[in-house]
Amino acid sequence: MSIQRSANAAPPSDLLAHQFDDIEQQHDAASLGMWAFLATEVMFFGGMFLGYAVYRYRFAGVFAEASNHMDIVLGTLNTAILIGSSLTVVLAVHAAQRDDRRLLQRMLALTMFLGAIFLAIKFTEYFHKYEETLVPGINLVLANERDRQAAIFYSFYFAMSGMHALHMIIGIAVFAVLFGAARRGRYTSAYHTPVELAGLYWHFVDIIWIFLFPLFYLLGRHQ
Amino acid sequence: MRFNLPLFPEQASTIAGRVDALYFFLVGVSLFFTLVIFIAVVYFAVKYHHKTDEPHAPHLVADNLRLEIIWTVVPLALTLVLFFWGASVYFSMSRAPDNALEIFVVGRQWMWKFQHPDGQREINELHVPVGQPVKLVIASEDVIHSFFVPAFRVKYDAVPGRYTTVWFEATKTGRFHMFCAEYCGTLHSGMIGRVVVLEPAQYAAWLSGELQGAGTAAAATSPRAEGSAADRGFRLFQQLGCAACHLQQRQGIGPMLSGVFGSEVRLQDGRTVHADETYIRESILQPQAKITAGFQTLMPSFQGRVSEEDLLELLAYIKSIGQRQTLDARRQTP
Amino acid sequence: MANYLNVNYGIRSWLLTKDHKRIALLYLGAVTLFFFVGGAAAVMFRIELLTPEGDLVQAETYNKLFTMHGIVMIFLFLIPAIPAVLGNFLLPMMLGARDLAFPRLNLASWYVFILGALFMLGALLAGGVDTGWTFYPPYSTVSSNTYVVATALGAFIVGFSSIMTALNFIVTIHTMRAPGQTWFRLPLFIWSHYATSVIILLGTPVLAISIVLLALERVFGLGIFNPDLGGDPVLFQHLFWFYSHPAVYIMILPAMGVISELITTFSRKRIFSYHFVAFASIAIAVLGFFVWGHHMFVSGQSVYASMVFSLLSMLVAIPSAIKVFNWTATLYKGSISYDTPLLYALYFIGLFTIGGLTGLFLATLGLDVHVHDTYFVVAHFHYIMVGGTIMGYLGGLHFWWPKISGRMYPEGWAKFAALVIFVGFNLTFFPQFILGYLGMPRRYYAYPEEFQVLNVMSSAGASILAVGYLIPMIYMVWSMRYGPLASANPFGASGLEWRTPSPPPTENFPTTPIVTEEVYVYPAERERGAAV
C-alpha cells in the first residue's frame, strides 16, 4: 500500500501518534486495520447473502416474480450514481496525493452529494413499496403461500438494502468529517491516510451494491 | 432421599449395545490418555522439582520431530477409527428396516402425542411391541422439540415444518423414560413420559382396547370406533374437498394419488422428486412449490386449516392407497 | 516512581485513558463483576437441582436463570476475559511497543462492551430471557414472551467490542513488533491471541447477522426462520453455530497461550517444539470454522453432511492434542518451581485433556445421538471452559499480577484457593458425565428421582467451587494495598514485559527494545528477583 510522496513534503509531527515509531508504520497499521475491518464486513454481508441464496434456491419462481416489482429504472440509476461516487472518491485521493486541496474538497463534497442522491432515491423506492403494500411486517398481506414466499424476498430486500444504506450514511458522515479536515488543510501529499482509507470503505460499500442490484432487481428479467 | 445411585442406563434396544461399545471404547481411550498425561505431568513435576535455595540447572532438550509425528499420527489414526465406527452406527440408525411398524408422533408444548396406524392414540406414553422395529414419523406443532429414549439410545429433533424420523427395536419389555431433549419453553422438563414395551400378544391386546389404562394415568386412548389413522385421513380427504380434484378412478383437475407415495414424481420445471412423507406434507401446505408436470397451478394451500395430526392422518390415507416401495423410500427424511 | 497506576488520579483519568494497561484494568473490573453475576445464577439453579421436583423457583424463572448464566458467562466473561484483560495489558509489552496500534479504538471497545452488557443486564432486571443462550427459533421468535430482542441486541453490541479488540491485536502484531522480533521469536501467548483474533474477525459478523435477522423476525413477524411462513428454523442453527463453534476456540486459545508462558517459565526451559505449538494454534483456528454442523447431528441435517462434520471434528482435536503433549514434554528435564501459576497450568493440562477427550464422544456420530442435549455435553464444555479457560485465566492473572499491580499475591492462600477450586470443580462436573449418559437432558429443572444423588454431588461441588472463587477475589484486592512489593521479574521469566519495572511506566519502554535472542531463554543470570 505504498503511496507517492512528494520529495520535500514532510508530515507534521503532531500527525505521528505516540505509539508508532514512524509515519510509515502508522500508515501500514491504519491500512491493515481498514482491510481487516472490511473482512468483517464481507462476513457480515456474506451471512445475509447466504440466507438469500438459500431461499432463492427454494422459491426460485416467486423470487423471480417479486424481482419484477423492483423499480429497475431507479435501481439502475442508483447503480450509476454509486459507481460515479466511487470515481469521485478516487479523484479525491488523487487530489490529495497531488496536494490539490481545492479539488480534494470538491471531490469529497461531490461524493457526499452523490451518496445523498442515492439515499434519496432508495428511500423513494422504500416509500413506493410502502404504497404498494409490499413491506413485510408493516403492510404486506400474507394471504397465501405465494405471499409468504414473496415476503421472504422482500424481507431480505429491506434487511440487506437497509444495512447497505446504513453503511452509506456512516460513509457520508465520515466524508463530512474529512471534508472539514480537508478545508483546514490537514491532508497533503505526505499524509492523507484517512482519505485513502475512507475511500477503501466507500469502494467496498459500492461493491456490496453491485452484488445486491442484480440479485434483487434483475432476477426475473430474462424470463 | 433414598440412596439410589444408578451409574449406567439399561440397554433396551438393538442399537444400544453398539452405542455402548463405542462409549466404552472411548472411555478406555480417554482413561488411557488421561492417565498417561496425569502420570507424566506429576512424575516430571516431582522428579524435576527445583529446590528453592539451589541454582537452577536447566537442561537443553532438543526438539524431536519423530516424536511429534508419532503423537500426531497416532491420535489421528485413533480418531479416524472412531469416525468410521461412529458413522457406521449412525448410518444404521438412519435407516429403518422395511418391516418397521410406523407410528406417528406429534410434539407440542408440552406433550407428546402418538398415533398408531390402526388409530390408537396416546399422550405421553408410547406402547410398542418388543422385538419389532418401530419407526417414528415425528412432527412438531410449534417449536423444536426432541424425542429421546435413553434406554434405546435414540434421539431425534421434532422440527416444525418438516418430518423427521427415528427408529428402534426394543429388546426387552418394561417401562422406559422418554424425554424431550430440545429446550422448548416453560414446561420443557415436563414434556416427559414412558415408552411401554409389551410382548407382541399383549401389544395386540392393548391395541384392541383390552388393556385400558394399565397403570397409565397420563395416557389417553381414543375409542377404536373412530378407525385407523388412514380411515380418519380418508374422512379428512373428503371434508377438506381434496376428493373434488384428486379423483379415485380417473384423472381429474389434480393428479391421481393412488400409488403416488414412494414413487418418483416428475415436476413442471423438469425436476424429479421422490414422493416421501415430506413431499406429501409440503404438497398440502405449499402446493405451489412442486407442481406435477402436466398440471396447472390451481391447488390452494391448506396452511392454517390442518393441524400436524390431520396432516399425519392424511399421510396415512395416502400411504394406504398404494405405495410403490423403492430403495429410496427407506431413507431418512429429509 | 511514576508508573501507569499513579501517574494521574481521578475517575476521568481512568474513564478517558488511552493507556492499554488501564483499559485492561477497566476490563478486569467489568468481567469480574459479570463473572459473579453469571455465577450467582448458577448458584441459584444448582440449589434448585438438589431436589428432583421443581420447588425452589418456578419453571420460568429456572429457564431464565440458566439462560442468563450462559449468556453472561459466554459473552461477558469467557470471550473477553483473557484477551481484553491479559491480552490488552501484555500484547504491546511483549512486542516492545508503547501501546496497541489504535489506543482510542481500545477504549471505545470497553465502552461498547459496557453498553452491550447494559442491554443484557437491563433485560435481566426487566424480567430476563428464557430461550437458552442459543436463541433457537421458532421458540425465540414466536413463542417466548421474554426480552429476547434486548438481550440479542446486547450480544450484537458486545460482538462489536470483540471485533474492535481483535482488529487492534492483529494490526499491532503485524506492524508493531520490536526490531529483531520475527514471527518465530514471538511468545506463544501472541500466537494464540493472533489466532483468536482471526477467528473473532471472521466469525463474529456472522453471529451479528444471525442476531439481526432473528430480531427483525421477532419484531416484524418475518418468516425467515418461521416454518409457518415458509422459513427454515434449521437455517438459524447453521448461521448461529457457524460463529458459535469457532467461539469456543476464541474462549480456549488465549488460555492455551497463557499455559505456554507458564509452563516455560516455571520449568525454566524453552517450549518443546515451538513451531508445532505455534502452527497448532493456527490449525485450530482454521479447522474450527468447518465443524459447526456437529451441533446438529439430530436436527434434520442430512446424514452425509453429518458425516463430513464428524470427520472434520475429529481433525480439529489433533492440534489440541499436540499442544498437550508438547506442554508435558516441556516439563521433562526442566527445573520446576511449584508456584501457584504453575499449579493452575498443570490443572489446565489435566482438565483440558479430559474435556478435549470427551469432545471426541460428541464428535462420534452414533454416540452423539445418545448424549446430545444431555448433561454429558454440559460436563464436556465446562471441563474445557472452567477446567481450561478459567484455570488459564487465574494462572495468568497470578503470574502477571506483580507486573500489573506491583505487588505479590499471598502464595499460601493462592495455593489453597487453587486446590479448593480444583476439588470443587471436579466434584461439580464429573458426576454430570454420568448423569448425561444416564439420559438426563439439559435445561431440566425437575428430573426423575434416580438422578438425585448425582445432582446433589454436583451441587455440593458447586458450593465448594463458589467459595474457591471468592478467595482469590479477596486476597488479590488485599494484596493491592498490603501485598509485598514486587521486583521487575519476580519469577525470572523471559519476555519483554519482564524488562520493565513492576508496575510499568505508562510508556512501557523508554526506548523500543531490540530483540536479539529466541524466546524462552533462561540464562543463569535471570534468576528470580533479578533486576532484569
Can you put this structure into words, describing what you see?
Chain A has 223 residues and is mainly α. Chain A has one domain: Four Helix Bundle (Hemerythrin (Met), subunit A) (Up-down Bundle). Chain A has six helices and no strands. Chain A is elongated and about 65 Å long. Chain B is α+β, with helices and mostly antiparallel strands. Chain B folds into three domains: 16-51 and 58-94, no CATH class; 101-226, Sandwich (Immunoglobulin-like), CATH 2.60.40.420; 235-330, Cytochrome c-like domain (Cytochrome Bc1 Complex, Chain D, domain 2, Orthogonal Bundle), CATH 1.10.760. Chain B is elongated, with a radius of gyration of 27 Å. In chain B, 40% of the residues are buried. Chain C is mainly α and 532 residues long. Chain C has a single domain, classed as Cytochrome C Oxidase, Chain A (Up-down Bundle). Chain C has helices spanning 11-15, 20-48, 59-78, 81-94, 103-126, 139-143, 148-175, 188-220, 233-267, 274-287, 303-331, 340-363, 365-371, 375-405, 411-438, 452-482. Chain C is globular and about 65 Å long. The chains are: A mainly alpha (223), B alpha+beta (334), C mainly alpha (532). At the B-C interface, helix 1, helix 2, strand 7 and strand 9 of B face helix 3, helix 6, helix 9, helix 11 and helix 12 of C.
Annotation keywords:
heterotrimer; A: 223 residues; Four Helix Bundle (Hemerythrin (Met), subunit A); disordered N terminus; C: 532 residues; mainly alpha; Cytochrome C Oxidase, Chain A; 0% strand
Tell how many strands the DSSP assignment of chain A holds: 0
Instruction: Please identify which CATH superfamily of the largest domain in chain B we are dealing with.
Output: Cupredoxins -  blue copper proteins
What is the level-2 CATH architecture name of chain A?
Up-down Bundle
Strand element count of chain B: 12
- Rg measurement of chain B, Å: 27 Å
Topology order of chain A in helix (H) and strand (E) letters: HHHHHH
